[in-house]
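Running log. JK asked me to keep both predictions on one page so they can be read side by side. First protein, sequence followed by its tokens:
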Amino acid sequence: MQVPGVHPDGCPPPPPIDSDGDGFIDAEDNCIDVPGTAPDGCPDSDGDGFKDPVDKCPQVPGIVPDGCPSPDTDGDGILDNKDKCIELPETRNGYKDKDGCPDEVPKAVAKFAGVIKGIYFDVDKDTIKPNSRATLDAAVKVLKEFDDVHLEISGHTDSDGDRAHNSELSRARAESVRNYLVEKGVAPGRLVTRGAGPDEPIAPNDTKKNKSLNRRIEFKLMNSPGE
């Protein structure tokens, strides 16, 4: 079988060489010994958009200008590119803990963290009693004023009766409080609920007074899930 050739020896040209087998021939491959990707045949080992030859941190995803991670100048665990106070460490207090800045929980907000006194329910029900409205309305006012505050609402019971029933009752009571706040205009996404039942007492379940202390609603400050 005859094959057309070329000058000077009449033989066909050799096939183009692709030393690293990545589909980019050596003549067009900037990294001929390492498999890579378009457009230049070089790899991006950490997948950060910086090809290895120009990435100063090729094994760790990074950012402009050099492909290395942002530093954390103040050592608060929030990288400088997301830290609003690069040289001042974050205060971990449940209030704006992801902005990287030191702060204090406003007094009005602090009042609605922990055990919330003044929220009452019908016996063995999740129905909120009318004399709870003043406390709940005050909480609504604060939540509307500080619209970046997020809360976990937890319900708690004493140890009397069936544990499973108490756990469900505590969850339902927390949901009732959440529903009240939402109906008054607090965004649902700012509030989560939890039923602890009798598992987190703050007093021994040995007297009527102590049991009443354990039957409670607590608010816990949280950061926005989307922060």
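And the second, directly underneath as requested:
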Amino acid sequence: MAHIQICSENNGFTIQDITMTLADLNQRFGINNNLIFSEIAGGLIAAQINNAHASASIALQGAHLMTYQPNDEEPVIWLSKYAKFAAGKSIRGGVPICWPWFGAHATDSKLPGHGYARTVMWEVLESKALPDGATFISLGLIETDATRAQWPHPCTAKVEITVGKNLRVELVTQNTGKEAFTLGEALHTYFHISDVAQMTIRGLEGCDYLDKVGEPARRTQKDGIVIESEVDRIYVDTTADCVIEDRGLKRAIRIAKQGSRSTVVWNPWTEKADKMGDFGQDGHRGMVCVESANAAHNVVSVAPGETHRLAVVYSVEALK
């Protein structure tokens, strides 16, 4: 029987004390037909949400929102048709959580890029149906000896996801220790688009960015972002909304963020995507990553007892 080890501080359990089956998850956190937990490929467990506004799926490994599609709309979030699902492996697409560092670890290159949060188990903390018909679910990172060895700072991390007419994702970090720590993070969001040639990203005009393709360089964005080759950029010192204008789908996706001072734009383009093996032929043409982050010199210092929140609302608008 599919199961997940889980702990609940409120009920006095520890991770060693309880094994939660799918039946347990559905009994405690399921919401009629709006929120159901099921086993997916690779033996992973996912929350499947269908409500009056939209559908979504969230893997408990990594608290990884894999899909989001408003009713009567094309998907907003892109998930590769060739995504691989396996314990301890990241999923290509969706909203991977980069935490508690972004990119390579500052001092130990052996540690995983973008941290470990996206490949370890999270526990379900809460679920509820909201008065407007949206569905709310909260998940908390499960600490283990392995995670503490990589990140020795006492803290908690949770993700709060609201699936409705819009999608809201909030990453919450609380310092429960006695010393400040430096936090790097991102919601590494993959967006579904008609074709990269039909897309322009607005909102970052005039921003400086760190260009990670070729020789590292700092540049300034002049106009809207058009992608015609590999792009890997960290836009710094920006809290602005971004808008993905998709002429092919005749819509715009708005990314409105709080608690974030960096925006990362990424598309691996043909050669890198082919080497990754989970994009499929020309898969990179139907996606773009616009990541709400705190990276480079925009990393966050979290004082003892302090809570830091990175929140993003994703919405669809008519293309003007």
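Observation for JK regarding the second prediction: The radius of gyration is 19 Å.
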